Amino acid sequence: MQSLNVLIVSTSKSKYLEHIFRSKYLKKLYITSDEEVAGAVQLKFNTFKELAQKCRTLEIDVVLVEEEKWVLEGITNVMKQNYINCFAVTSEWTELGLSHNFARKMLEEYEINVPPKITLPLEFPVLVKGDGVLKKAYSMQEIVSIKEKVYKTSGEISKGIFLEKYLKGEKCKIISLYDGKHLLTFPHEGVGRTLLNEYSAKLEKMLTTENAKFLGFINSEVVEESGILYNTGFSFEFSMPDFDMWQTAYPKDILYVCISAVYQKLNEVEL
Predict the structure, then answer these.
(1) Where are the domains of the chain?
(2) What parts of the chain have a pLDDT lower than 70?
(3) In angstroms, what CA-CA distances link 89 with 47, 63, 104, 194, 258?
(4) CATH topology for 1-114+171-271?
(5) Which one of 46, 87, 195, 217 is least enclosed by Cβ atoms within 10 Å?
(6) What pTM does this model have?
């Protein structure tokens, strides 16, 4: 396999430098943070277009975006337009994290469990959700107060507010990597292998059926309750999987996995 020029896009020192430096596939590492790192070259930029042009000039093979706010601002779309392998979802798929209504509708369509909606709360707390709204309420008075505040900000958003059962099970973040055809979901000590595989298969079906055109990590926030795994949200920052959970000795090299994703061969990676 080829060695890679890698760029980590973040505003602060990456939490994953040790893993990247340890990779036998690393050729040269670039960073965007202001903090100097021995063995890495700093890149400064003002716009995503400028950064993409620098990536092309420096022949950077892989861009790992740690800064979720830049994912939400569309860095991946700009990189894709310049044929840069950027590991992050495109802007149209950030809707899964920004809109609870959009996410719930799509997840239900693909039979991925989401917490039940509530019409009249009989027990508290409950979650008050909407587009850009996520609040925990401990009484009807609090629910009314939250709705009133949202209405004052946006009458349109207030129309989409709903109540959701608050699940008390164990909360976890499941890390998955998508290559445009296959979804690789990494083991998590808080979720059993059977539940994890079932969830991953449904999420892969959703992404492939909906013709998702991105290369990157998608993090599922889940809660297990009564043997059922519920999706409670998504986040999109680059997250390193827990290497201790991998069952095989090979590959535990994150850049190996990235190369496999670039060539749409994640289905050949064994964990």
Answers:
(1) 1-114+171-271, 117-165
(2) 1, 243-251
(3) 18, 12, 18, 26, 14
(4) Rossmann fold (3.40.50)
(5) 46
(6) 0.92
